[in-house]
Amino acid sequence: MCIKKIENGFKLSLDDVSFEFHAKTVPYESDGIYSLDSIGEIPVPKILKGDRILLPIDEGVALKAEEAYDGGDFDMDNIKAYFHSRPGTMCMIIVERQNKFLLIALKSGADAYYTAVRENGIYKLGINSNIKDTVIYGIFDSLISACKCYRKSRGNVRTLKEKLDCNPQIEKLIGGGFFWVFGNHYDEVMYASTDTDVSPLVGYEMLDVAEELYKNGVDKALFGIFFEGDSYLTEQLYKKYGYICTQYDNYSDVWNPDLLKKVPQNRAKNCDYTKRRMKDYPNGIRILKDKNMAPAWGVKGYDGEFYRQNALCPLVAVDRIKEEIPEILAKYPYYKSRFIDVYGGNLADCYSEEHPVTREECVKVKNEAFKALEEMGLIPATEDGFDGIINHLVYTEGLHSPDCFRFDDCGRNQTHIHNAEQSQYLSRYMMNPECRVPLWQMVYHDCLFSLPYWGDSLAATPDFTIRKMQFACLYGCPPLFSFTVGNFPALKETIIDAYKKVTAIHEKIATLPMTDFEIITEDYGLQRSVFGDKYEVVVNFTDKNYIYNGETILPDAILFKKR
Prior knowledge:
Layout: E1 2-6, E2 9-14, E3 17-22, E4 28-30, E5 33-42, E6 52-55, E7 61-64, E8 78-82, E9 92-97, E10 100-106, E11 112-119, E12 122-140, H1 143-153, H2 160-166, E13 177-182, H3 186-190, H4 205-215, E14 221-225, H5 234-241, E15 244-250, E16 253-254, H6 265-270, H7 272-278, E17 295-300, E18 306-311, H8 314-331, E19 337-341, H9 359-375, E20 379-383, E21 395-397, H10 420-428, H11 439-444, E22 449-451, H12 465-475, E23 480-484, H13 488-509, E24 514-519, E25 526-531, E26 535-540, E27 546-548, E28 551-553, E29 558-562
Parallel strand pairs: 13-14, 13-23, 14-15, 15-19, 19-20, 20-21, 21-22
Antiparallel strand pairs: 1-2, 2-3, 4-5, 5-12, 6-7, 6-9, 8-11, 9-10, 10-12, 11-12, 16-18, 17-18, 24-25, 25-26, 26-29, 27-28
Helix pairs in contact: 8-9, 12-13
């Protein structure tokens, strides 16, 4: 790789592939890559037809420079995403050109964002940092080499093996399945527009599901408990089946007490975190730069409209986590994990005079929160996540389902079997091997488990269960299932089959790094990954046979073997 100063910028080249940058300063060489200290607009190359832009949206997406994409409620023509967020889980972007890979990465990225905007039929790339940051550039012969360089730039990162040494309970998740089992009246409580007395609890039916799973070979599992009223089930799930239980919790969404006049009471009554959060209105609310209170997730009112809650300041949330969870564990000691929704999804600054936080400080604040869970003996988990906080996380839900490819309102469909329209939308991108790329796994597979979003679980789209299994095996991700007890009989055979096939691979590669990844055919139909240089997964996404290294790979097949 070499660099050359050109008029109004510089050019980076490797072999016969080059990238031109408009810049006032030329990067300096350091340890085989080039670095630049910058603030404001970061130099990026002009994107050309034929390029692919690899973006860190959750685990990673691949966009062809000249192609238009329909992202539903995610505007794919005007992408703007902060790093340390769901659409910026890593502080890097990779541009693929003629089988070479340009890495652009920020050392901090705590107050920086990228843009990918379609202009005149092609994407234009941009990166901006509000604070002084160090940018690194490098061109590599392979995608895995670019990802290894990025991992090295992040310094020491705790691996799953290190986390396992601190908490042996994590072993129960290696080669296990993750299950959210909801009561049949969940939607009537969470999204009704009238008052009802129905209970959203699952009750002993959850134990019936566990019994069926266990006797059919599901020997390792994590069960999610959504409502506090089902917490008594944790003891039997752990003692009889050895299943880990996690409790859903939320340290972001705060009800304005006025919502009690607008939203059905059963919703507020059953969500214990709602009651706990109301005490923080308005003094604990995160304040925006314009002095308004930050909005949060919407809840459905009597009139059918959704009313925004407000967001808790991340600094206040740390105090609440330390205050509340030990009391919950004293009451329910068989909880071995804690799933904190939303909180791990991004950084958030706060302009409150009582609890101000900058985005840079927020990295430390959120690490403190998840470390507190770890010190309580729990397995910490969150939604989506980003690499600034992974040292004290064991698993995240959502990374394996890129946000921009989820159908609209996917977050409110976690108990549903997808309808034809939703399935058709997923087929365009989420199930398309040309559009997805395991950037996260190439960097961090050995550091935490990355799961699908609960509205995109393996059995939620029966037509695509095999395809989802293929992605899970190729990327080294454990299976997640989300369903109501009423749907379980129809889904049972599919769930058990998917569990066995995916976990048979995950059991062996769970704590290993992804050491190679390759798109073998030009149609993206045959792809290969390697874990720890020990195990190889080859997936055929097509409906035709392929010959690979002398072996016939059948349509829709998953080939797993020791090297």
